[in-house]
Amino acid sequence: MRLFLLTALTMTAFAANSVLNRMGVGPGHIGAVEFAVVRLLAGAGMLALLLLARARGGRGRLSTGAPGRRLVGAGSLLLYLFGFSMAYGALDAGVGALILFGTVQITMFAGALALREEVPARRWVGAGLAFAGLLWLFAPGEGAALSPSHAAMMAAAGLGWGIYSLSARGAADPLGATAWNFLFAGVPGVLLAVALVARGIEADAAGLSLAILSGAVTSGLGYALWYAILPALGAARAAVAQLSAPVIAAFGGLVLIGEPVTPRLVVAALMVLGGVAFASLPKRR
């Protein structure tokens, strides 16, 4: 039950990132690149403060860990952050979520197979049910336009997030690993921020506030929690669990943006959450 609740909290944080991004970039409060940069730097700052506080309290060291793993984590994080924000400049939110989490699931299931992780039949069935729910919820209607370049950006973001999640396997220090991933990624982020300031930042106070909230709370703290619970979930079950995030985001859009709840949304939510629950059942003894 504790693992289920922590997973639900983490998926809520992931879904909040989609809602916050739409609230900022959609109405033009902030540019897509600016949102990604501020989100990255805010997350790095929050995690650096936590890391320093822990070190001063004698509860951990400031070691960066394996350089190779940090480079993989930072690179995949950058791919996700910028692909995510830039794709939503043209994609419908539902189609974007389908591409993102569908790519994440494919990446993590492929990783589970490559790493020879046992994938029970119930997880394949649960994943199929959940993915069918997403297809039902986010399938574009007649005449829906889909930008190939922005779809490719979102697919790249899903690939980045899937690799980032797989790189968390076996992390002995989840908070430290997440913090150093953000700090390593923050180096090119600072350089890009300087370039944006020189060019002129496209953002108002509301847009900056949404990006900071997304970076410091729902990204930085959310990803630290995700790293902490990933070893217990495993790659296959984690991939299925993430399919619940688009449904949570849709209901968040109802509350914060005023998007309607339709019968299609209700049926799809039942399919996705039912699939996640079925795939998460423990092995029978």
From TrEMBL:
Membrane spanning residue stretches: 31-51, 71-91, 97-115, 122-139, 180-201, 207-226, 238-257, 263-281
Origin species: Albidovulum sediminicola
Protein name: DMT family transporter
PANTHER family assigned: AMINO-ACID METABOLITE EFFLUX PUMP-RELATED, INNER MEMBRANE TRANSPORTER
Sequence ranges assigned to domain EamA in this UniProt record: 153-280
Signal peptide segment: 1-15
UniProt lineage: Bacteria, Pseudomonadati, Pseudomonadota, Alphaproteobacteria, Rhodobacterales
Metal-binding recorded as keyword: no
UniProt keyword Heme present: no
Subcellular localization, as worded in the UniProt entry: Membrane
